Amino acid sequence: MKEGQKGIYWISGESKEAVMNSPMLEIFRQRGIEVLFLTDPIDEYCFQQLNEYEDHKLICNTKENCEIDETEEEKKEYDELKGKLEPMMTKIKDLIGKECEKCILSKRLVVTPCVIVTGEFGYTANFQRLMNAQALRDNTMASYMQAKKTFEINGKHPVIIKIIEMLEKDETDKNAKEMLSMLWDTALLSSGFTLTNPAAFSARINRMVAVALDVSNQLEELPPIVEPESPKITEEGDATESADLSKFDDVD
Known about the structure:
Blueprint: E1 7-12, H1 16-20, H2 26-31, E2 35-38, H3 41-47, E3 52-53, E4 56-60, H4 72-96, E5 100-105, E6 114-118, H5 125-132, H6 142-145, E7 149-153, H7 158-169, H8 174-190, H9 198-212, H10 235-249
Parallel strand pairs: 1-2, 1-4, 5-7
Antiparallel strand pairs: 3-4, 6-7
């Protein structure tokens, strides 16, 4: 540990490569702070119960309570930027939707525009992945297991600055909303979560490629996608199904 460091930082993931490439580590790489890599599934279960070691607090890099030592100048700069962007935070949260718990200004990001972190007492993205992979998991508990996601933005990043400028001019700007949705989806992936709607994400990527290649106007000429019809269940079919199920009811 570096001299004067107050906590022991840790990050969990599916593999060493997954955690090494995490944007959550940017500020720690820049400052030369060591971080524990937890890549074994049992580690995640153990660290849910461990809070400190020899008077050093154990701090998860992917949670909202990740405290980083700052100079007085850095604290002042952060507070000024936070005060400036505060009115936009609620607006960004509303534009992303109910999946986003809140939007906050990040201290850990250097080159990445945004990440998604979880609450101090909630599950990490990796722990949620492990729980969802359990063969005998209780699906009725799924809603309680879902981590509350906080959108953490890098207020100095050119992309974030541009989107905020667009929203300040017009809060209903469709392009700004589209870009925020794209940032949210990419942040989900880079932060270790699973996309809730991969098809919508693919559609946004395709539109962005079309715009970059200046062929977006030709998309309207393409034939529409025909959605498959859902199979119709007749009353006779329902009766047959009920009869078949009743056979199993007789077996104890």
